[in-house]
């Protein structure tokens, strides 16, 4: 994974403090300045790097444990969140079922052809070593016509 530069922003307890990240040659320092009103103090950390985190997959719907009729549309909604970015991941999303395999891709996906039974529906957000996954359980109940045949 590619490392990401970060800096701490936690002020010292019991003092007024300001933490400022300083960019130096592609890395950052955390600099704290504290004052008790009379004296000022400043400290710097050594430069440090933290590995980039994978995308956090978020399933917005349906709820875990949802039940639907076979043949009725099931609307899957989700997104990815990169902790380093402010914009959600809406493009690199894929959905799969442990029973029926790949279901499709996208932030919103309507699935009609799920087989009856319990499914583990998984959303994969992001790509490569930055991909993150989240899953829910969905039960598809056979229709009356399916039960008779």
Separation of termini?
Answer: 52 Å
Strand content: over 45%
Number of DSSP E strands: 13
Identify the CATH architecture of the largest domain: Sandwich
Overall domain count: 2
Low-confidence stretches: 1-26
Looking at this structure, what is the CATH superfamily of the largest domain?
Immunoglobulins
Whole-angstrom Rg? 24 Å
Can you put this structure into words, describing what you see?
- By secondary structure, the chain is mainly beta.
- The chain has two domains: 3-51; 56-148, Sandwich (Immunoglobulin-like), CATH 2.60.40.10.
- It is built from one helix and 13 strands, in the order E-E-E-E-E-E-E-E-E-E-E-E-E-H.
- The chain has one helix spanning 144-148; strands at 3-5, 16-24, 27-35, 40-44, 49-51, 56-61, 66-69, 74-81, 93-97, 101-105, 108-111, 117-125, 132-141.
Topology of helices and strands:
Layout: E1 3-5, E2 16-24, E3 27-35, E4 40-44, E5 49-51, E6 56-61, E7 66-69, E8 74-81, E9 93-97, E10 101-105, E11 108-111, E12 117-125, E13 132-141, H1 144-148
Parallel strand pairs: 7-13
Antiparallel strand pairs: 1-5, 2-3, 3-4, 6-8, 8-11, 9-10, 9-12, 12-13
